[in-house]
């Protein structure tokens, strides 16, 4: 089960592998059915989106999953300003589709302006779809390593949309954090649950901070959320999870289901 600093609940602080970072077990995703700087969150309207981000903080969540592709940076900035959210308490993750080092550096500068922050806790190379991404993106990896040395980025990593890409990441020393699709039904995943779990276990054993996403299969298995949450939270290879929320009620509902799943797991172990 998740490596913990305190008794588990949705807002418990958990270590992200050997990255040196810790954040809440549950994080708010901002890219539900997202593409080209648009998402289901944005389509709900600014007030709802910003209000949901603030509500997540009020519920104890500190991990926010952003991306340039989602167009969510400015909404996070507005939530931080309006609710005066303490930057030092937040884990802000963002992702870049840059494939050249010069483009990546420009992205980092623009992203920081858009969110109005001096640094990001985690920056991921987004949507990797080939097993040899480490060869093709060596320049971007070097640029992110420089940004890490400069304090612009605290941890580097990848989000993968391909099993071979995940296998490469699991054994890559450069990777601090992995964001991976996992649920017990194989929906919106990069292999069967068994195949993906094997790779994630290798990555976790190698000290990667392991973040799970698509727990609800992009909404396709929402009716099975209790079963999916219990499966993912019971894995030894996942540190924290991202779930995309469209409103405050969805956060409350997820927290209830997570706490219930954790209680069932505790009962099963005792």
């Amino acid at each position: 089960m998740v490596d913990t600093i305190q008794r588990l609940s949705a807002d418990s602080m958990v270590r992200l592998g050997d990255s040196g970072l810790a954040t809440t077990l549950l994080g708010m995703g901002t890219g539900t059915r997202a593409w080209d700087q648009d998402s289901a969150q944005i389509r709900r309207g600014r007030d709802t989106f910003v209000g949901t981000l603030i509500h997540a903080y009020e519920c104890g969540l500190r991990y926010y999953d952003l991306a340039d592709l989602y167009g969510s940076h400015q909404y996070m900035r507005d939530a931080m300003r309006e609710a005066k959210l303490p930057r030092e308490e937040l884990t802000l993750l963002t992702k870049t589709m840059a494939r050249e080092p010069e483009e990546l550096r420009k992205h980092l500068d623009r992203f920081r302006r858009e969110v109005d922050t001096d640094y990001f806790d985690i920056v991921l190379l987004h949507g990797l779809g080939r097993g040899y991404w480490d060869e093709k993106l060596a320049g971007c990896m070097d640029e992110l390593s420089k940004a890490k040395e400069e304090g612009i980025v605290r941890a580097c990593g990848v989000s993968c949309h391909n099993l071979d890409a995940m296998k490469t990441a699991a054994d890559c020393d450069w990777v601090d954090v992995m964001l991976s699709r996992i649920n017990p039904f194989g929906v919106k995943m990069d292999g069967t649950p068994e195949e993906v779990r094997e790779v994630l276990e290798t990555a976790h054993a190698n000290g990667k901070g392991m973040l799970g996403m698509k727990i609800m299969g992009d909404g396709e298995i929402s009716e099975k959320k209790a079963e999916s949450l219990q499966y993912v939270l019971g894995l030894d290879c996942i540190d924290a999870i991202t779930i995309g929320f469209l409103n405050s009620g969805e956060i409350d509902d997820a927290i209830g289901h997570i706490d219930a799943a954790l209680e069932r797991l505790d009962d099963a172990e005792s």
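The first helix runs from residue 40 to 43. The mean pLDDT is 96.
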